[in-house]
């Protein structure tokens, strides 16, 4: 039986994580009304966008005013400001040194990385500390920390508040032997993080060396997986090593957003970000649980806060309480708005392709790309990675079988080009491949 004490030990910050929803919404309103005059005065981008829309901070007296009046920004607008004004911060910077500690970038998977000014207190860490604690990490525990390199913001020294001690290893598939070695040496309780290429690297390492990964990872209470959807076969593989998987995504580049022990969506930290869930092609909210675009406003960043930033991320969002006891909302990521294709009028996202790849031994790694010269097409063109040693029959037979699976599963015609997995992986960044490509 769970005692109240053990219950509260589930949360790194019980006050914030379980704050009643009405209080959380009042906190958001207070933060918004405090922050907006400050941002308008200091951020050249926000001032330009608001002036165009004829909005002033004095027009905002409530959250309802904010949602009704404040104009949106997106990545294109930030990049345009950067290019036309020669401002490396894209007009987002509100403060200078010592508060401004550098500039970060979005991952750039879909194009030019977008600049994001970073403060000395990176709010991303607030979220990650809660998430790692909930996975079971405690002060003085080691955490195997294999982060892909351009996520500069997640400096490992920032973990000091929670007392978790990161041991850093490169996020590189050919260096997984190091990852295995340090888990044996330091016995970390958590592992941050695995990606499709890293899991494939571990699988090859296991096949080549016969090493017992279940034993190597036996100290880990949980492992983070992020970057993109997890294929069913890779999930089974990781679980066969005795690891519980917690999927992670980005909360519109403001914070992280990770599954809890309930595994029913990823928690949106709503003291750090105001999350809106809107019609992807309009400005109106969509119903709780429906498919919508995530729009975020940073609530705890006074160096470069995003305000009504259209993330281009399609999500299902709910603010219903979670069985883990937290009151913050949850999302299920569906893909990028810019990745959606309309094949003969039917919506197709990369997420829809993952389960189909599970049907064939040679495509279990689910490395594939949608070829998308434009949004609408008559036939779905797919480039699919395969493992040559697992091919049953000819390549042509596999391509035909995948086309039949797409037709049966999604109701659209397909053309499939097969490429060896190693070739597709060259399209990096190291943690994933672009799921949509123009050609
Ligand atoms: Zn939860």
UniProtKB/TrEMBL annotation:
Coiled coil: none annotated. Keywords: Ligase. This is Phenylacetate--CoA ligase family protein. SUPFAM superfamilies: Acetyl-CoA synthetase-like. InterPro entries: AMP-bd_C_sf (IPR045851), AMP-dep_synth/lig_dom (IPR000873), ANL_N_sf (IPR042099). It holds the Pfam family AMP-binding. One of its GO terms (molecular function) is ligase activity. Residues 101-296 form the AMP-dependent synthetase/ligase domain. PANTHER family: BLR5969 PROTEIN (PTHR43845:SF1). It comes from Paraburkholderia dinghuensis.
């Amino acid at each position: 039986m769970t005692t109240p004490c053990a219950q509260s030990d589930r949360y790194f910050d019980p006050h914030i994580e379980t704050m009643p929803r009405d209080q959380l919404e009042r906190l958001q309103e207070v933060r918004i009304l405090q922050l907006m005059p400050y941002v308008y005065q200091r951020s050249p981008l926000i001032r330009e966008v608001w002036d165009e829309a004829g909005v002033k901070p004095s027009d905002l007296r409530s959250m309802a005013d904010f949602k009704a009046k404040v104009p949106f920004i997106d990545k294109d607008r930030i990049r345009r400001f950067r290019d036309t004004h020669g401002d490396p911060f894209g007009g987002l910077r509100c403060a200078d040194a010592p508060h401004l500690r550098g500039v970060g970038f979005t991952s750039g998977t879909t194009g030019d990385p977008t600049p994001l000014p970073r403060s000395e207190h990176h709010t991303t860490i607030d979220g990650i500390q809660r998430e790692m604690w909930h996975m079971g990490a405690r002060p003085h525990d080691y955490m195997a920390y294999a982060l892909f390199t351009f996520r500069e913001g997640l400096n490992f020294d920032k973990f000091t508040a929670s007392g978790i001690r990161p041991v850093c290893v490169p996020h590189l598939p050919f260096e997984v032997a190091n990852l295995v070695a340090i888990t044996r040496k330091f016995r970390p309780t958590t592992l941050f993080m695995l990606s499709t290429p890293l899991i494939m690297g571990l699988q090859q390492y296991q096949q080549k060396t016969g090493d017992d990964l279940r034993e190597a990872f036996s100290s880990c209470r949980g492992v983070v997986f992020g970057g993109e959807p997890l294929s069913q076969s890779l999930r089974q593989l990781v679980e066969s090593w005795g690891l519980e998987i917690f999927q992670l995504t980005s909360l519109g580049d403001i914070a992280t957003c990770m599954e809890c022990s309930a595994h029913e969506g990823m928690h949106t930290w709503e003291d750090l970000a105001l999350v809106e869930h809107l019609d992807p092609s309009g400005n109106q909210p969509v119903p709780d649980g429906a498919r919508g675009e995530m729009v975020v406003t940073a609530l705890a960043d006074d160096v470069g806060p995003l305000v009504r930033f259209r993330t281009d991320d399609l999500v299902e969002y709910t603010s219903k309480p979670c069985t883990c006891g937290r009151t913050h909302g949850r999302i299920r990521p569906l893909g990028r708005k810019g990745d959606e294709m309309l094949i003969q009028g039917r919506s197709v996202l990369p997420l829809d392709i993952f389960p189909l790849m599970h049907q064939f031994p040679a495509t279990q790694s689910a490395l594939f790309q949608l070829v998308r010269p434009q949004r609408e097409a008559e036939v779905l063109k797919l480039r699919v990675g395969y493992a040559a040693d697992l091919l049953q029959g000819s390549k042509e037979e596999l391509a035909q079988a995948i086309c039949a699976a797409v037709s049966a599963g999604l109701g659209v015609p397909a053309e499939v080009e097969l490429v060896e997995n190693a070739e597709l992986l060259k399209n990096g960044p190291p943690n994933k491949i672009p799921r949509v490509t123009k050609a």
